[in-house]
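Task: encode each sequence below as structure tokens.

Item 1
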Amino acid sequence: MTKHWLLYGFLLISNLLFSNAVDHYKMIGFSKTGEHMAYHRATMNSDSDGWHGVVYVYNTSTNRQVCSPIEAIVDYDMDSLMEPLGDEIYLVSHLILQDLYTKNLAKALPQLQEYGIEVGNTGYLAYYTPTYRLGPGNDTVTVSQFAPSTAKPPTSFTLLLNTYKNNVPDNSYKAQPCYSTDPLYSCKLLLKTAHTPYATIHETNAFNKAPACVRGYNIGSVYIYGSRVVTFINYTQDGYEGSNVRQLVVCAQVHD
């Protein structure tokens, strides 16, 4: 659990220090069979001390949400939190994230129980990076080692994230205008095993699928539970006061 809170706290500190918005995600757990998984996303409102927490539950076979997101909005008095802790921003971040996570987890309990989510059954965090990237490029993550407590997939595997430039004018985005004239990008996530070639498991489309106005993608983290693989993809997107860092979630199964 310590590794997950360090990841969570690092993201919050970046949000407190800079004006752009950064999503803070935390894996809640998988169901016993691995058929479902849930995670929590927290975002700080840029115009207040309020935080918006959302619980998502996914079917890991179809890569689709199985119920409406469960949301909670909590206001925090940053001055009162900072006063007893001085300049210890990490301690403040830990308190806020833990409190918001606990409140939203209680609110989402009926849905988590319905889909058999075991809180804390997060599988194996096989890869993580706190960095974000702008522009084109490829990310390659090869997974060949697994935690002893996690059922081993049938084979090792490699994820390839290809980020490529769109030939899409800014004015094509009707719902969300772009605030920069920098190039726009889409991405394609591919997976291969020792016995199967690369196959596309997710691809963004600049015209009819969110997100819009994206300036770059990279693989943020990879979780494994049995043959199930959950990849969090960071993407940097135009915002009103600068860039926002968001996440895409891609669920897949490793087949030998």
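Item 2
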Amino acid sequence: MAIAVLMTGCSRAEPTKPQNPRNTMITSCIDRLLLDMPSPIEFSGTEVKYDGTHSFVGIGDRGVRGVRYGERALTETHPTAETEFFRIKRQVGTRITTQEQLTSEIFAIDGEIELFQDILKGPDLELRAEAAKRLKELRVKRASVEAARPHSGPVTIADKTAFAFQDGGAFKLGFYVPEDRRVRILEGKLVGGAHDGKEAVQEQYKLFRSRYLPRNPRTGVGQRGFCTAHGIILEKEFATERNTFTEVMFRSTKYPNLIFTLTVEPPSAEHQDIHTERNLGADTANLHLIGIEKRFGPERVSILGANGRVLGYSYGRNCSKTSCRPADQLYEFEAKTYGEAGNKYRPHLTLHMIAATSDEYKTAWPELPDAPDHNKVMRPGLKGKVPPPYEEGKKIFLQVLQSIRAKDPL
């Protein structure tokens, strides 16, 4: 079968250099991986607001979770004007717990402490034991809130297009990059908790700005570090963050309807093997199973040298008893491996691709007034854009899957 040919040579787990002998594919990096696309790659961003959802212009959110580096969550927005940066700064500021709110929380905790102190004086031994346990928990909580009270609010940053806030034992910082007109927001916990103070937040800002470099999709390939959708976090050979998570969307500018989602996370310690699961785990795949016209797989594959599987579906109309509508996508494919526990070059990885429809295709099947909710169009299409035929889309997906390789040693 074609898949067996495409997967030949994937058993080696060691990092490799980009291999593109005929220059028919363009290499990009994401997480600590390299992959090849048939034309320049475009990564998704978030809406230009705090807590915005991931998307492409014209394509709605697909529940993508973004990037986490250690215990820090990173957001990279769509391009925007510098004035929008200040609006995001105000949005972040409204989410910070104020000293007044912390004072009110302390009053509420004190009220609970008084209640359980009264129970502790009563005759019921079982209630007294439970009250003693709750009092211990409440006093720990009160001490934590009390410590956070003087350490919540804005933190001074010299850069006029940057901000930082301390929220007790956590921080939120952001900055605007004029080169690509995107806002970056980093959130995480302070090592020493609220006791670290605002100087620790300033140090977090300086450290991140010194290590994070904005990039376009074609750069960062030869640099050591962790690639985000629109940047790279530089790392030294013996100072590498292992606790990372990546889930981003990307697509080829040549085939904008083919929307990929890549999820990379550390392998579990449970030594899961997808080849031993019933039906190769196809029953648990995040795929729609309505109106299937064609089915591919599941097939065994090797992904970064670990056992994996790949499967796909092509869809026709989705009909109920009263009406029909087109599918939310014409076809989709998914490849997955659980990785290998203890092997840093074999993460838990899922590559998913959908073929988004065009607006014209969807409007060719108008919704009826009596159509049930499950029969309504779930996502917008791409106006004037039609995905390639099923077999061509499958070939592109398998090419991208086969190209995935480690970028540099961990």
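Check on item 2: The two ends are 34 Å apart (CA to CA). Residues 67 and 246 are 5 Å apart (CA to CA).
End of task.
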